[in-house]
Each structure stands twice: as C-alpha cells, then as structure tokens.
Amino acid sequence: MPGDAKSGPVQTQRHLIFYSVFSAVTGPPAADARQASKKKKRALVRWLGGVLGLLLVAASITTFWLMQQLRSSLPIVEGETRVAGLAAEVVVERDELGIPTIRGETRQDVSFALGFLHGQERFFQMDTTRRRAAGELAELVGGFALRFDRAIRPHRLRHTAEQALEALDPGERELLKAYTRGVNAGLSALEARPFEYLALRQEPRPWQEQDSLLVILAMFTQLQDENGRLELALGLLRDTLPEPLFRFLTPQGTNWDAPLIGEPLPAPPLPGPDVIDLRAAAEPSQTADLEEHEASSEWELRLQGSNAWALEDSLTAGQGALVANDMHLGFSVPNIWYRASFVWPQSGETRRVIGATLPGVPLMVIGSNERVAWGFTNSYIDSSDIILLELDESESRYRTPDGWRDLEVISEALGVRGGAAENLEVKWTHWGPVIGRDHQDRPYAVRWTGQLPEAIDLGFIAIETAGDVDEALDIAAGSGIPALGLTVGDRQGRVGWTLTGNLPRREGFDSRLPDSRDTAEEGWTGWLSLEDVPRVVDPEQDRVWAANNRVLSGPDLAKVGDGGYILGARAAQIRDALLEMSQADVEDMLHLQLDDRARYLDRWRELLQPLLDSRVDEADPLGALVRDQVAAWNGRAEVESVAYPIVADFRDAVFKRAFEPLIAPVLELDPTFRFTPGLAGRQAEGSLWTLLTERPMHLLGKEYDSWDALLEAALSDVLDEIAAQEAPLEQQTWGKSNTVQFRHPLSYGIPLVGRWIDYPATPLPGGYNMPRFQSRFEGASQRMAVIPGREEEGYFHMPGGQSGHPLSPNYRNGHQAWIEGTPSPFLPGPPVATLKLRPAESTSGSS
Prior knowledge:
Layout: H1 2-26, H2 33-72, E1 79-83, E2 90-94, E3 100-103, H3 107-121, H4 123-134, H5 137-141, H6 146-152, H7 157-166, H8 170-189, H9 195-200, H10 209-223, H11 229-240, H12 243-249, H13 290-295, H14 298-301, E4 305-311, E5 322-330, E6 338-346, E7 349-357, E8 364-368, E9 372-378, E10 384-388, E11 397-400, E12 403-406, E13 408-414, E14 422-428, E15 434-437, E16 443-448, H15 469-476, E17 484-490, E18 495-499, E19 504-507, E20 515-516, E21 523-527, E22 535-537, E23 543-546, H16 554-560, H17 569-579, H18 586-593, H19 602-615, H20 621-632, H21 643-659, H22 664-669, H23 684-694, H24 707-724, H25 734-737, E24 739-742, H26 751-757, E25 759-763, E26 778-780, E27 783-786, E28 795-797, H27 815-820, E29 833-839
Parallel strand pairs: 1-29, 3-6, 10-20
Antiparallel strand pairs: 2-3, 2-29, 4-5, 4-23, 5-26, 5-27, 6-7, 7-8, 8-9, 9-17, 10-16, 11-12, 13-14, 15-16, 17-18, 18-22, 19-21, 24-25, 27-28
Helix pairs in contact: 1-2, 3-8, 4-10, 7-10, 19-20, 20-21, 21-24
C-alpha cells in the first residue's frame, strides 16, 4: 500500500517501543530468551527513565505552581487598590524595612488601612492568636493541639469577647468595624491565600469584630495566671508546712527590692527549732528531687517580663522626658509586633503617632504621639483568685453566702481538623469555671479578670492623642487591657507610672492564697476607681523605673496584690544605673538595655571562689581550670563566658540542696510540686541568703555535717555536670547554652519547611536577673528610646522583620540590628514604595 511505504519506519519504531515495554511486562518468547532478556533490560531502563522523567516534570510543575502560589500571596506594596469600606483615599508609604506610614483623612480610615496591612502580612499570626484564646487551634492544625484547647476553653473567652463587643463604646465599635473590614479586604486582595494555609491545606476564616477582642484576651493569658497556679502552689505550702516556715520560704520581698513607693521589705525571721528541726526529723519516706521537676516546668522558667524607665528633662538638658522600653516575650517568627506610623487630621491639627502595633488590634500599643511617649512592663499584680468549693452529695450544687446554687453545665464542642469534634463539659459557678481539685481533693473555681467582659475594651486608644503625663495616666487606669505597668514621659519633661486595666477591689480575704467563700460575704466587690489606682508622678528622684519587680508597698500593694512579681535584682541594677546618670541621651538608654552584667551573682562568686581555692590542687585538673575561669571572670553573661554558667549553676545547686529537705513533706504529698525561682520560690533568694549568712544548724539537712559541707556538695554537683559534658571546659560557654531559636509555628510540624522559614539559631548574651533579659525562649521583643517631639533622635528595633511572608524582602531585614544591638531609627525612613487605597466607588469619576 502506498501509505505503508511512507509510514512504515515510523510504525516499525512505534511497534518496537511497544514490544519492548510489553516484553518487560510479559516476558520474551521461549525460542529467543537470551535476546529477549537483553531487550527487556534495555526496555526496563528506558521505562524507568521515562517514569523518572515524568516525575521530574511533575515535580517541576508542582514546584512552579507552589512558587506561583507563594508569589501570589505576597502583599501589595505599591500602586493603587480600590477597596470597599473607605471614606476617602489612604496613602501607605513603606520604608526600606517595610515600616508603613499610614496617612488618612480620619482615624477610622487609618484603622481600615492598618487592618488591610495586617491582613495581608500577618493574617496567620492573627488567626492562631484568636484561636489560641478561644480554644480553637485544633480546628486548624489537628488533634495534637487539643491539649491547648482543653486548657483554655473552660474560660469561654469567645463568649467573653462577644459580650464585650456588645458593650463597646459606639466610637470604639466603629473603629473596630473599620479595622475588621480592612483585614478582610486585605486578605481578599491577595491573589492566593497566605502560604501557611497552602501548607496546611486549609482556607483562612474571615476576621470578625470579636476576634480583635480575643487577641487582647490572648495577651491576658500570656501575661497573667488565669488558672491560679501560683496561688495553688502557695496553698499547698501553707497547708503542709508550719506557718513560720511557710512565711520564711515565701517572702514578699528581699534586699534586692527597688520599689518606686516604699523601701525593701525586711526578711522574714528564721523559724526556730521549736517550729522545725531537720537534725531531729525522721528521714523522708521519699527522696525529693527539685531538679527533676524544675526541668519539666516551662511555665515556671519562662517569665514574661519587661523593662521600662523614664527620665525627666532635668536629666536630658531640658529637651523633654526620655522614655525607654524593652518588652520581654517569647520569640516566634514573625515577631509579635508590627511597626507603624499613623497620620491623620483631627481638631484642626495633624495627629501623628509612631510605634508598634499588635496584629489583630487597631491600636498603637507602645510609642510616641509627639506629646507623650509610653511603654509597658508586666505588673504581676494579682488578677485571679482560687475559690474552694463545697459541693453537695450529687456534686451538682455548690454553697454560696446566699445558699446552695446549681452548677451551670455548658457543653463546649472542640473542633478537630480531620476528625470528629470532642465534647468538653464545663462546669460554671457565678465566680467562674470549675477547673480542678487541689492537693486535698477539694474542687475549686477560678475568678479571673479575663473572664469578665467589662475588663476588655478599646479605650486605651485615647492615649494616641494624650497631651501630657496626667492625661495619659488617667486614660490607662480602667482601660480594657491587661494589668500592666505603664511608664510615660511628656514633651514638657515630666514622667509618671501607673497600672493599666480594670483592677479588682477585694475585701475580706488574703488574695495570695486559696479561699472558701461558701458562707462569708467577701471577695471581689467591683473595680478600683481612678482615684484608688496607684500612680507615681513627678518623683523626687526625677526618674521612674519598673522591671516586673515589686513597685508598690503598704496600702498600695495591698490594693492590687502579689501576682508573682519577680526578684528585684534586675530592677535594682536599672535603678542604680539611672541614679548614676546626671545627664543622659538615647545612646545611654540602649547601653543600659544591653547591660549583661550579672551583678546579682557577685556574692555567689565570692562564696564560690574560696571553695575552689581550698579544694583544688594539682590532682584535680578540672577543678583548677574551673577555679581559673571563675577568678578571671569579668562578671558578665557574655556569649564566650565560661564562668557565668558555672557561678549560676552553683547558685542553683545550693538552692536545690538547701531547700530540698525543708519542703520534703510537700513533695511526699505531691511529688510533682515545684519550688523553683520561677514560681513559688520567686523571692526565695532572700531566704536562701539568710540561711547562708546565719547558718542555722536546725535548718540544715541531716546529710550534711555543716553548711560548708552543703556548699561543697553543691560544688561537686557543678563539677560533675561539667565533667559529664563531651566538650572541654573552655568550649562550655554561655552562648552554647543560651542559643536562641527563632521558629515559625509551621516548622514544628513541617521540619523541611522550617529550614526555609525559621531564622538561624543565634547564641546571645544576657540572662534572667540583669537588664539584658535573655534565655533560649524569650527576651526583648523590641527595644526603644524616645523623647516625645524629638522622635528623629530615638531608636527602635525588634527581632525579625515586618512581613510574615518568607519571600518578602522585609521577612528578616530588621533582625540583625536587634541581634547586634544596633540602634535603628525610631521614625520610618524615606519611602521606597507607595500604595494608595481608594474607595471602591469614586466620586470623582476617575478609574
């Protein structure tokens, strides 16, 4: 056939290919097995090569698609975008760090634009924050998050947020509506969903107004003790130990105290041998092990803190008050804060406010409005109480001063991605949820400010236009945010300090300890009035400071209670440095924020050095090396320091050995109890030093012949730990231990992705009880110093970059300045990109 001659070679080739593939599957004819075997091998190679090629093509297509999706989810940074919900055009100018200056005609339009930016650059962060507060994480990421949801859901914070939303001031509600519209407009304007949802194969859920209040409530949970863990720990100590011993172990202050009001508190007296005599006590039936339980308690060791101080203009050559702040929080990628500048006209003048926002909330959290500058510390006032319950035989009713009341039983459905919802039964009293049983198997409820809708609002926004210190302090008191210490300074050169938030008024009980309210009329009787909230204005020393320490004394402290404020060593070091300054500028503030002198360990080194000198000889080469390192130490928690961790570990070993026999009855009752510097033992440094100074034999464990023997045993613990390390002593530096991880939440579940989206692990100087507060998990989430009205002279930096998108040039580009302690400008720099947000329906007729 004519066609056969033309197409024959091609058909023959196709036939051979088909035959090769067919033979690879079915086998060759028996008459030509050897030849067929060779063809089979060649065909198999070709087949495998074809499959590999197809896989490579598929992988290339998938990679191309993924990169296209990632690029499509990048935020819009320039050009013009029309959006519904704006009253007038808003201009967003970004500098080279991605910091936006938002210029609008009204504060509502500025709020819309801020929501647009947050929605485009930080939506996954906002989403996980609202879900964490509401107990809805498992819906997004799966069943492994159920333990977090179970822990927070009994507080029913979404219900609280919904109630608080309905009670908002109309102006605040309109601002929140504008912000919510902006968030959803920003999310919708992305060409593809944020990359985290692509990785999770989920769709983002639109933002709702109450979600912003949930973000505020998430800060309540991060900064406060919503489950009364400190109070329960103190209750166990009180119920198990003799009263004088309990008071000795849990003082309310030490000689490290540096309050703004009052003086350091005297140390509690030593309990006498008539109270406790360890030399005569029987051996405990169970060996206590504080160290084992310390290592497993992240909550105790991760102390959310901050530093803030302000200097009057007498110390700044009359230029105005100088305010410095570095807030200590857990690290994540992206960073918790989003820098911004707002500009809008109001009352015939141009308003401008610069600082840091919290994605999910339309407020400027810290910063300067050119008249007033402000910053925060965690106050650690008492924001929750444990109420011991008496239940009837059916355990369906509880006793109150007004008689028996029914427990309200609420069913909470915990959604789970890819699985069936879990039903959580929450029992609720008129004080709050029933969340557990104590060491005596008594059920208890918790009353906490975060459960009360009247404690949450957007009133703090008024500080953006405050004109002086007095106005700022009035705004702070009773504002709907957590109870924080607010440090302020104004353009006139005045400074002040007060507490923010709604603070409970208590009557008739010791708020440090669990209490029964079944028959007595006592408890919370409302909120402290503006006049009752403690404040410091125009101090005699021309300075105010706070560092999560006890700031108040006497009646002022009694009003707000002790929620676990920490050892005053850091605050004392800051106070002393400030008092040494006769004149100061912003450079001095950064130098103090980066101060890594471990001054609180000076006396511990003095205690350790003679032990090393008397113990070490040529037969103990390791001890000799340790002695030389400690002797040569410059007193700083530097990355390359070998001596700092040695002295710190010696202090911790002494803490463990001294207190272990004193709380042995507690550990017999509850082996999981933790008495550490992070929880019930926050002020125990003072008690420990009293023991080492007075050396009472009746408070020394029976295994030691003397207090010197206890110190020798603690030193042996340290030397044994050093010897157990694989690295030689000179390589056992503080930086090796204090290596900070900057991880995106996704990297915990998707390690390969983590290599791309995490920041490099970095060894850093600093420690807990010094101005440069630093650990592996938390530290300064930002640093700033500014004189209101002279913002161009200030600085601001934070870990990480502005954007939450790993392909953005602003994902990491501020990080190195924070690592190195380099002062970045407080003000945004010159614009490198401009975005115009215009109303969807233009009245000018232009397109």
